[in-house]
Design a protein that fits this description.
The complex is a heterodimer. Chain A is 46% helix and 15% strand. Chain B contains 17 helices and no strands. The chains are: A alpha+beta, B mainly alpha.
Amino acid sequence: MGRTFAILAEFANPAELLAAAKAVRKAGYRHFDCHSPFPIHGMDQAMGLKRSPLGFIVGGLCIVGASIGFGLQTWVHTIEYPLIIAGKPFFSWQAFIIVTFALLVLFGAFGAVLGMLSLSGLPRLHHPLFYSDNFSRFSRDAYFVSIEAIDAHFDAKETWAFLESIGGRNLELVEEPSP
Amino acid sequence: MTDTKHRSSQEIDPNRPYSLERDRFSRIFLGLGIAGLVLSLLGYFLEPERFYFSYLAAFAYWTTLTLGALFFTMLHHVTGARWSVVLRRGAEALTMNLPWLFISFLPVIVGIHTLYHWSHADAVAHDSILEAKSSYLNTTFFVARGVLYFGIWTALAFLLNRHSLAQDQDGAEARTILLRRISAVGIAAFALTMTFAAVDWLMSLDPHWYSTIFGVFLFVSGFLVATAFLTLFYVLSRKRGILAGTVGIKHFQDLGRLLFAFTVFWAYIGGSQYFLIWYANIPEETVFFLHRWEGGWKSVSLLIVFLHFLVPFTALIFFASKRNKMLLGAVATLLMVMHYVNMYWLVMPTVTASSAMISWVDITTLMGMGGILVWLFLERFRRNPVIPLRDPDLSESLAYHS
């Protein structure tokens, strides 16, 4: 068989999962994850997750998009191809606002979608946890904690005992086949 | 002060009054109001023309603010919002100022010939445009419409408050549904009356000029300033220990989000109005901005762009700033000040085209009306339970902090 990927433990309900997440974090683990069929309020704090930097990615790209939109029009209308339109001055910033705004939104939207995908490591076609048959219930009616082997505190025996001590059931050592 | 420091819904006992004791703040506002009104009366004799325009600006300020609170309440009901249940009493107490604003509409009627050029028969006779508009813009119809608007708004305010307060007693869920129905009809009536009121009271100051977005602009301004008022009120209440454990950081964050969204929407509407008029470049439309770009008004116009939009926008865009009560209070104060500048900017160029200078009568009328209205608001808020005690969604609103 291959190498150990993680230990998987099942919990009875969202409240237990929340408590387990707090306990796992308190025990010093950092490479762990919680799996539930729906979002659970307070899970981010329980797991000690930081706020996503996505807002700043989107904000940065919005500024880039707006600058391109405004800059392109300014360059075309004042330097490259000045045309008199409706008797307005070449540099009619009022008229540029709409395209500026549109590009701001466009870049922001791309930043939001692509940034979200890349921050969450998507698209991803497979995950080692899928080797566990029991794990398929995570999207239906089960709540799991997985502690990954790459964690500095990970020790197959100790972590197993720890997960049992905090109420985990159906414990499972998930292995991934070596390539 | 009665104890309102409860930590969770379990500790709320609907049989306790949860009202507040009288304190000196409401009396300070009453004092400011009386002083303001007395000084304004002096202004009426010293500068009668200026007085009416100052009064109209103050009237527009407080009416839009109160209508914003009416919309806040109806929006809450019609969307079935749960987060804002604990904030509803503030908005409701504000709407009960509408009957008083009805009375404050009287000086506008008395000053109609000073304020509105179209109210002079001889001016209309020599002006074919005004003649064509005279079936709408005439004194009788103007007064009748004003009475109708205030009648509808007052009725809505009474209905919304009555059933909300009655639910404190009987806890009937049917009232929540009834309030939702009243609000659904109310919002439709509100949209029409608000638009027509904006046209009547402010747009017709320049009877040749027209802008189809004007009503929306005034509505957005009103909702924004009402949210700012409520934000500031709850920030200050929390500072004095009132509503601790009831209005939490998440409520403030959502008030911040509303402020942010409507700051953007306000700029969007105001910008659209400017943009279309600038693009078409038709003299009868551009005159509005011309009057606000000359004779010292240019700096006021730019001030509005910066302090009514860019500064609040930049301040509120960050996650952390919406959870900072000090900052929220500061931005809310700025928006309340800028709303007056905005009303001033709409009204005053009609009478002082050559100077944007503020007059002492402007201050006293704003202070007189505001002092009385805030006093009435504080007294009403104090006497009723500070949160809807038996609202079905109360516990969810109290538990709203993640």
